[in-house]
Amino acid sequence: MINVGIIGFGTVGTGTASILLNNRDILRERTGIDINLRRIADLDIKRDRGIKLPKGILTAKTEELLDDPDIHIVVELIGGTTVAKDVILKAISKGKHVVTANKALLATHGAEIFRAAGKQKVELGFEASVAGGIPIVKVIREGLVANRIRAVYGIINGTTNYILTKMTEEKAEFSEVLKEAQKLGYAEADPTYDIEGIDSAHKLAILASLSYGPRFSIKDVYREGISWISPMDIEFARELGYKLKLLAIAKESDGKVELRVHPTMVPEEYLISKVDGVYNAVYVEGDAVGSTLYYGRGAGDMPTGSAVVSDIADIARNIVTNSVGRISLDPSRKGKSLMKMDDVQSMYYFRFSAIDKPGVLSKISGILGKYNISIVSVIQKGRHEGKAVPLVVLTHRAKEKNVLAALKEINRLSIVAGKSVFIRVEGKEGDR
């Protein structure tokens, strides 16, 4: 028998406990191991979570769980980067294997935690830290182990995907859709981590570390949110044949890795552009396998609990077969270096608020040409001579630092009213 202790009995903790209790027979049949939920620690042990627990399983004292010599696997579901870190390191120091869903902790202190686990020769499972029920960690660690990973693109935050989907379908303003998402429970009362791309950046740091070697952290990820996106830009994207998504992108180029989270225009015929609502999807390109796509629910008690229990089952097998450490996650091994955002190359969408008069486009295109930015297409809506109108430009691939320099110069022109908008565009140039 392999005994499990859960620390943190919130949404994911409840889902995990429910699966371990209700599917114990299925787990035994499929693994040949009896996986027993022995203890749950939480500060609140009186609130009804809607599931029936064995008598005496709950405790308000984390130490009772950590000090129990019969518990083999500790599941950390507290969240945050302080108490959770202490709990995990204490569990590791006592020789216990650990499963966590804590993306913020791993993206901030992952190297320290992985070193501790390696030193103690214990397992660290973290499937639930990225994309909920989608087994993307296992895919990269095991399924694509024979591949050099060329790129990882992800819609890995359901809140922002829901908001952008609703803005696209209903041509609604960001603030209106955010309120609706909060009312439905898809967005937190304080939605900052979601709408500013922080949650996605945490997850991308983990995926990049799996794919490219060193322990990338949240500090390595360039990040933009979606709060500034307008229905106007979504509509122009549609006219150009694109949809707008908050993408997390890790891509190897010239021996370096670019890591970025930002609103991105994706060709509407791409499968990932068809992922709507609260769903997640992760595209992975390997040198041997080519392009692959993984789709499913990225959050929730049961999808995330499913990922937690998957790690528990894997670790239980490794304990029983004496194969702990069969997959190396050494944070000190040599990996790819980080590319500066200035050196990233992409296609770009620009929207200028330009005065409607002769010669405006030639002035703007002249500055773009000066910085080696060539134009694919142009859209101008309406004619209001002498007044500002939207002027939309789609470019070929260009370097980020050249784009920023060109926009700085264009924004100083008297023929441009207000700050110009730019959105990065992914996809092969020949696709449009």
UniProtKB/TrEMBL annotation:
<dbReference type="InterPro" id="IPR005106">
    <property type="entry name" value="Asp/hSer_DH_NAD-bd"/>
</dbReference>
<feature type="binding site">
    <location>
        <begin position="7"/>
        <end position="14"/>
    </location>
    <ligand>
        <name>NADP(+)</name>
    </ligand>
</feature>
<dbReference type="GO" id="GO:0009088">
    <property type="term" value="P:threonine biosynthetic process"/>
</dbReference>
<protein>
    <recommendedName>
        <fullName>Homoserine dehydrogenase</fullName>
        <ecNumber>1.1.1.3</ecNumber>
    </recommendedName>
</protein>
<comment type="pathway">
    <text>Amino-acid biosynthesis; L-methionine biosynthesis via de novo pathway; L-homoserine from L-aspartate: step 3/3.</text>
</comment>
<feature type="binding site">
    <location>
        <position position="188"/>
    </location>
    <ligand>
        <name>L-homoserine</name>
    </ligand>
</feature>
<dbReference type="GO" id="GO:0004412">
    <property type="term" value="F:homoserine dehydrogenase activity"/>
</dbReference>
<dbReference type="InterPro" id="IPR019811">
    <property type="entry name" value="HDH_CS"/>
</dbReference>
<keyword id="KW-0521">NADP</keyword>
<keyword id="KW-0486">Methionine biosynthesis</keyword>
<comment type="similarity">
    <text>Belongs to the homoserine dehydrogenase family.</text>
</comment>
<dbReference type="Pfam" id="PF01842">
    <property type="entry name" value="ACT"/>
</dbReference>
<dbReference type="InterPro" id="IPR001342">
    <property type="entry name" value="HDH_cat"/>
</dbReference>
<dbReference type="GO" id="GO:0050661">
    <property type="term" value="F:NADP binding"/>
</dbReference>
<dbReference type="InterPro" id="IPR016204">
    <property type="entry name" value="HDH"/>
</dbReference>
<dbReference type="GO" id="GO:0009086">
    <property type="term" value="P:methionine biosynthetic process"/>
</dbReference>
<feature type="binding site">
    <location>
        <position position="103"/>
    </location>
    <ligand>
        <name>NADPH</name>
    </ligand>
</feature>
<feature type="domain" description="ACT">
    <location>
        <begin position="349"/>
        <end position="424"/>
    </location>
</feature>
<feature type="active site" description="Proton donor">
    <location>
        <position position="203"/>
    </location>
</feature>
<dbReference type="InterPro" id="IPR002912">
    <property type="entry name" value="ACT_dom"/>
</dbReference>
<keyword id="KW-0028">Amino-acid biosynthesis</keyword>
<dbReference type="Pfam" id="PF03447">
    <property type="entry name" value="NAD_binding_3"/>
</dbReference>
<dbReference type="InterPro" id="IPR036291">
    <property type="entry name" value="NAD(P)-bd_dom_sf"/>
</dbReference>
<comment type="pathway">
    <text>Amino-acid biosynthesis; L-threonine biosynthesis; L-threonine from L-aspartate: step 3/5.</text>
</comment>
<dbReference type="InterPro" id="IPR045865">
    <property type="entry name" value="ACT-like_dom_sf"/>
</dbReference>
<keyword id="KW-0560">Oxidoreductase</keyword>
<keyword id="KW-0791">Threonine biosynthesis</keyword>
<dbReference type="Pfam" id="PF00742">
    <property type="entry name" value="Homoserine_dh"/>
</dbReference>
